Amino acid sequence: MEDPKKKYQIENESYAFAMMVISCCRHTAKEQREFILTNQLFKSGTSVGANVREAQEGQSKKDFLSKMSISLKEARESKYRICLLRDSWYFKTYPLREDLLNKSNEMIWVLTKIIKTTKLKLQT
What we know:
- By secondary structure, this protein is mainly α.
- The protein has one domain (4-123): 23S rRNA-intervening sequence (de novo design (two linked rop proteins), Up-down Bundle), CATH 1.20.1440.
- Helix content is 84%, strand content 0%.
- The chain has four helices and no strands.
- The longest helix has 29 residues, at 4-32.
- 31% of the residues are buried.
- The model has no long low-confidence stretch (mean pLDDT 91).
């Protein structure tokens, strides 16, 4: 059975990531008038937590694994867009750009660990 503290932690962390993404997108759209990348980041960044929550109510371990894998894909997509915004200088006035990148790396690491652990449990 999954540790309730871990469940709560990934839900909180993915929610915190989504809130950082929302803040970043609002700032970048307002200050830099950039809407295409920020809209894409908004979608992928908020999707991470949505899929984590769907996974928590999965009908089976395989369903859980599938939803967590989607969440990981969304986290990786978000990181890619964060890097694009940073490297194209759209983030030049966003004060939390490195925090957001670090948080995306953290989300990828945690989700990868959850997926690997779940796969091991499925094999036994």
